[in-house]
Amino acid sequence: MKRKRFKPEEIISKLREAKVELAKGQTVPAVCKKIEVSEQTYYRWRKEYGGLKIEQAKRFKDLERENARLKKLVADQALDIAILKEAADPNL
Fold first, then answer.
1. Model-wide pTM > 0.70
2. 75 in a domain, yes or no?
């Protein structure tokens, strides 16, 4: 099966559709088939995006991207500091 990346708005929309179908008495596997995602994906989405609104989900994703970028910067700086310390005092 071809893997597709969904935008936060699409995920929330699919979760809402799933919630409606589940309220009608459908089973989780049937609902997942209807919204075209695996059960594992459905449960992960529900855990991550459960009660979020579209604006909140967008903000959440933006913050995750920024957090990853900042973590990379900190790791690069820590490596630079370690290299400089080693160069300054080769006896370490």
1. no
2. yes
